[in-house]
Amino acid sequence: MHDHPHPAGKNLRFAFFVNFVFTFIEIAGGIWTGSVAILSDAVHDAGDCISLGLAWYLQGVSDREANERFTYGYRRLSALGAFITGCVLIVGLGFVAYESIHRLFEPKEVRAGGMVALAVVGVLANGAAAWRLRSGTSLNEQVATWHLLEDTLGWVAVLIGGTIMAFWDVPIIDPLLSIGISIFVLYNVVRNLKKVGMVFLQASPAGFDVEAFRKEALELPKVVELHDTYTWTLDGERHVIATHLLMRSGTTREEICAAKGELYRLLRNREFEHITIETELEGEHCNSEFPPAGHQCDHH
């Protein structure tokens, strides 16, 4: 099978450079306004820069063809990038949350007007990048879109907080916003890390019901049983399955091919691209068992 470059690269590159430039603006603006809410989002954006940069780079690497060393190809590198990004974000958010809690007890004045101005730029910049990625079909694009939507929502919160502080002297709103943003982002990071963990632990693909698939197989002509089914996902999008199909004794080669063809069709519709189906007839030893010495199994 030959892999072809995915069109996601240009969109991810655009999102990366927008995020990269704006992160420096955000850090400078956070220091100038004295807002930990803005600095907390700057840490998040710095993590997004790593995420988008890795996504952009790994998108190209993951499209490389399989070889003798990596027989499944490089698909799982995208999950590795997500894991690294998640760890970086958790460390950064921990620092920001510590600083914000300290500010709760010792609120400091912030430049509300500067917060509002920077928030408007933040909504426009992150919104533009999210709009560019909105129609992407790859996992990298979808995850990046959610990151950018989170950023946009965070800036909407800063805009609201800055507007309130422009009229009322309530500096405690800034650290409260920072804590709220940190909790929201942390929740999504942990949720994504759980998905990455499931990929590396070789859990069944999300949404794939092994038992339901078995029942569909049993409805096919001459099929007696489906057993020893093993399935996992390479990157959350492309899946692998190996299974054994037990057919009635006397089933013809044409009937076996027809049953296997129908199973292939069902699996392709579920995003499986590496499919192994071994067949046995009733009375034969399955090769997952240890056959008696000298016994020769017939395989189809």
UniProtKB/TrEMBL annotation:
Residues 14-196 form the Cation efflux protein transmembrane domain. It is found in: Membrane. Pfam families: Cation_efflux. It comes from the Bacteria. One of its GO terms (cellular component) is plasma membrane. One of its GO terms (molecular function) is zinc ion transmembrane transporter activity. Gene3D superfamilies: Cation efflux protein transmembrane domain. Keywords: Ion transport, Membrane, Transmembrane, Transmembrane helix, Transport, Zinc, Zinc transport. The chain crosses the membrane at residues 12-32, 79-98, 110-131, 143-166, 172-190. It is a multi-pass membrane protein. This is Cobalt-zinc-cadmium resistance protein CzcD.
